[in-house]
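Problem 3 from the worked examples.
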Amino acid sequence: MVDIATRVWNHKWKIDPIVRSLIDTDFYKLLMCQSVFRNKPDATVTFSLINRTTRIPLADLIDEGELREQLDHIRTLRLTRGESTWMRGNTFYGQRQMFSPEFMDWFEDLQLPPYHLERVGDQYELTFEGAWPEVMLWEIPALSVLMELRGRAVLDTMGRFELQVLYARAMTKLWEKIERLQGNPDLRIADFGTRRRHSFLWQDWAVQAMREGLGDSFAGTSNCLIAKNRDLEAIGTNAHELPMVYAALAKDDAALAAAPYDVLSDWHEEHDGNLRIILPDTYGTQGFLDNAPDWLAGWTGIRIDSGDPATGAEVAIDWWKSRGEDPRQKLVIFSDGLDVDKIEQLHQQFAGRVRVSFGWGTLLTNDFRGLVAGDSLAPFSLVCKAVSANGKATVKLSDNPEKAMGPEREIERYKRVFGVGEQERVEVVV
């Protein structure tokens, strides 16, 4: 097993770049990339880094030269022969050759496009612009780099023995969480923690701990490189990016109202089974479900990613019943801001009513809260989002207005088109 503290002490070794592979990313990113490659390859999209936790002065903590070095390294990465073989020949969700030969030929030749970086006050402005299938693959690596460099800035001030004790405490903290989860029968949980992880090595350790501690209850990991290296299931479906860009490309209000369903219609043609998971909250869950076509009710399940998770699940259950579906046969995936207390509560609340699964993210792979002075390793809310498509601003409303993004005028237009009224604000921790 890797001695993480020693590797951190020597982290300037070239053996430990922050991102070491093009598949050191979330599985849903590759699935979405193939969908975009097939359906919207010519759309020009801009992604931008957004630090929601503005009290964290990233530009003061992270050296610009070191940040550029890590980003430049990512641009040198190419898909390796072993990675290509894994993608071309592996079985994902029971399906062989999920990635088409045309997509794989393109991906094998891909170099991530250039980035734009500048300091603005105590934050960094980091943007990526280009063809949608190319620039979308910057999101996860960019977040991983910023999160880890912020952590390294803190770790650089610590001595060798101090680092050993820190990681021993962090390991104990995570193992105690795993021990609590062992007491929940029929639990189904996966690692969703790539984008805001403490580091690659720590995520890899956390995944191994989950596998040993939870056995068959551990469904797998969203991280493709770790899934490949550890012979685990790669877990993931789709994200808000798809409806956000489809909506921005809409020519009028009618096309805008149809955009979230157009996304899933394209997805429906490509995937079946457990990949048919609805993410309904981009423009408000209730309105999305009220206006959804009947064929969507036949999909496998729903992912709850904002707002109160229990409320979201109840809305989904009522919707399935109203469409003549048996909720007990449906899957609800909870994935927003989870930690053990909330996982246990939701698992107990919905057991027997629906099939329940959890995508455990930041507080699995980056919970160093309370372990250093000033809590300077506590996770924070950093995102990298599509902010425009073909020159038009994107919008996200969410079920939590604290997660809304886009120009105010466009937010109001989207609220009108999608019938979104007053919403409850929930603090965004991660």
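Problem 4, a separate protein:
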Amino acid sequence: MNWKTTLSGWSWYPMPFGFAINSALKRPLRALCVAASFFLIALPAYAGLTAQTTELLDNRFRIDHAVEQITILAQRRPGSAPVVVVKPDGSKWYAHRHPENVSWNVTDSSDLIRITQPTPGPWQLVGEVVDGSELRLMTDVVLRHDPLPERVYRGERIKLTAELLGDNQRIVMRDFEEQLNWEMHIRSANRPGDENFGAGPFMIGAYHDGGKGLDEMPHDGIFTSDLDFNYPAGLYRYKMSVSNEVFHRELTGEIEILPQPVRIALSELPDGKTNHSELTITLEPEVSPADLHLDLAIETPDSNRYQFAVTPSEPVQTMTLPMVEAFGNYRIDGQAAGTRFDGVEFFIDLPELAFYVAPPPPPPLSPEELAAIALKEAQEREASAKSRVIWVISIINVLLLVVGAVILIIWRKRQRLYQELMAMPLEPRELTPDEVDLNQFSPEDRPGSAR
């Protein structure tokens, strides 16, 4: 298992911790106060620096010459604009305008600013920062994480915590969670024969400090996981990371997801059919039946939900389901808490078991009923055939009427046009010399000749 952590290209190791400790000075401010967390990555020559005190007055603080990098966390009034950083020479940096050696991450109520090679001297933050905040200078920041188990059952619920340490002390600040993006990814290690071969990557959860789920107390700096291991069994490579625009840290390693040690299924009848009113509980050999407790719930088609607890006494045990009576859809889900023979405890979410209870088939029909049904079907077919014939004849008649009407209309229009042409008088027209053809007359027909 590789517990190596990284921050902005530098390598860090959780153990042993070698910190050069700087102290924090808390001092109330009159109107606007700064919430700052300084992650100072010092040069080796300054590893033995003693604690320093930084005075805050009107949101001012001082950076000495030994600081190589500084990270500022400023807490603001929700919805307010990002702070403005005023350098010792009076020039200003903004969230939307700053040099390349500055990284800036903005949320609705805080700013996280990292400055590389900051100018020594007095600095100032301008903005609507909250009251009651503090300034801390730290020479190192370490990501502490609970060791992940080498093996987990599919669907197992485990509680893992992580925290950021500065000078070997947990960083606790309001709204600090909003500045962090926690993620946990797994990808198949492609071990031959595993069910998960080629699977992934999967985003299986994150870490939260809101006091919900398995997290015990909100905003105490302890981030609790909500990881989901309901994925195909096999060996995985994981990567847990916490990052934002300013820094990035991660843990990597391997974890194996094992098949569930408890299985629930409907029993089978001797003829191979399913017995919907009986549930079979099967345990793997490594599970102790005496230390296993199941909390199950079944939802019936009428939306009623029945809870029942089971403590098996045998590796394979059956139990009746008296609530399975009506026809329709059923769902069974629940959890199992137990102990293996080697003393390892587990708590898993069982996969949902859904099934459908169909009504019984109707009894077979008597010969008389079958004959009546056949006669009725024959009558219906005959009536349907007669209806189709009538429709076909009707359609043909309608088409003939339409064609005849069209022909009659065209004939009458032609007759009317002919009559109009015959009644039109012919007007004589005098021919021009060019239009007279003398060759059409014979010599006998010439003027003055006698026949």
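Solution to problem 4. The helical segments are 367-422. Confidence is low (pLDDT under 50) at residues 1-57.
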